[in-house]
Amino acid sequence: MAKGKDVRIRVILECISCVRKGTNKESTGISRYSTQKNRHNTPAQLELRKFCRYCRKHTTHNEIKK
Fold first, then answer.
1. For residue 49, how many C-alpha atoms fall within 13 Å in the half-sphere facing its CB?
2. Which of 62, 64, 65 is nearest to 17 (CA)?
């Protein structure tokens, strides 16, 4: 049997400081992580502090749309 809407969904987290820099010579890319969240417990966008290898420090990563 197939479920209608899954409770756990896959989300992509993106570094907000890399996105703000845009085309900066120091940053060669945008840090992204993939994870899962429970749709019922966290209906708002997910925001976590993760390590960005391009900024070389812990920064805030926000959920983006697929």
1. 3
2. 62
CA nearest neighbour of 7 among 56, 34, 43: 43
> Residue 11: phi, psi to the nearest 5?
-130, 160
Domains and CATH numbers, the chain: 8-64 (2.20.28.120)
Q: Is 0.85 surpassed by the pTM of this model?
A: no
In Å, what is the CA distance from 41 to each residue of 36, 38, 44, 45, 47?
12, 6, 9, 11, 14
CA 2 to chain CA centroid, Å, is 28
The proportion of the chain whose per-residue pLDDT surpasses 90, expressed as a percent, equals: 59
Q: Residue 31 is which amino acid?
A: S
Using only the alpha carbons of the chain, give its radius of gyration.
14
